[in-house]
Write a structure and sequence with these properties.
The chain is α+β, with helices and mostly antiparallel strands. It contains four helices and nine strands, in the order ββαββββαβββαα. The protein is 22% helix and 40% strand. The chain is globular.
Length: 189
């Protein structure tokens, strides 16, 4: 059973907690951290996508954010992001390597396995620059089938036009690109 902090509209814990399943059943605002892993190859920025496991209840075999996760009660955004990177992809990272990209609130209603799903996330988005070959990642097979490096502009177009099976928020992907544009040297973003 995963316990999450209930948060206000600014992502601050209210002092109350909720089970993850109940948060999604009732649309209770909780926190998540998203990390987009980037690298520069031949003068272009590439983004790492993870392909969700085929056994996942929601969005099986869809391309997704490099690493993402719900933040357990009592944990902060950075601590959770570092934990998810290690668990899902086998990447060790430090807090000073995570580059703050922005905050966003996700409101999403759907049906998963025939049940109503009301997701209300306060998300902190980070960038991690890491040049790693796909075969070097240590994947958590219950979560991730594979990873794929893709040119960032091509990825945005593929998501925008649904050319790949995905569960990526286009606005967030564009947020990452905008963060890259603000800096001259992507390795120093």
């Amino acid at each position: 059973m995963e316990i999450l902090d209930i948060v206000d509209e600014h992502g601050n814990p209210t002092g109350k907690t909720v089970e993850r399943q109940k948060a999604h059943e009732e649309g209770i605002l909780h926190r998540t951290s998203h990390v987009w892993i980037l690298r520069e190859k031949q003068g272009k920025i590439q983004v790492l996508l993870q392909k969700r496991s085929g056994s996942k209840e929601s969005y099986p075999e869809c391309y997704d954010i490099s690493s993402a996760g719900h933040i357990p009660a009592g944990m902060d955004f950075v601590e959770s992001a570092i934990r998810e990177l290690q668990e899902e992809l086998g990447i060790s990272a430090s807090a000073d390597e995570l580059i703050f990209c922005g905050n966003r609130t996700v409101v999403w209603d759907d049906y998963i396995c025939g049940k109503p799903f009301h997701d209300r996330q306060y998300t902190r988005v980070f960038i991690l620059w890491r040049d790693i070959d796909e075969e070097e990642f240590i994947l958590q097979k219950e979560e991730v089938d594979s990873v794929l490096w893709m040119d960032l502009d091509e990825c945005i177009a593929a998501v925008e036009n649904n050319r790949i099976k995905h569960c990526i928020y286009l606005g967030e992907l564009k947020m990452v690109k905008d963060a890259c544009k603000r800096k001259v040297d992507p390795g120093k973003l």
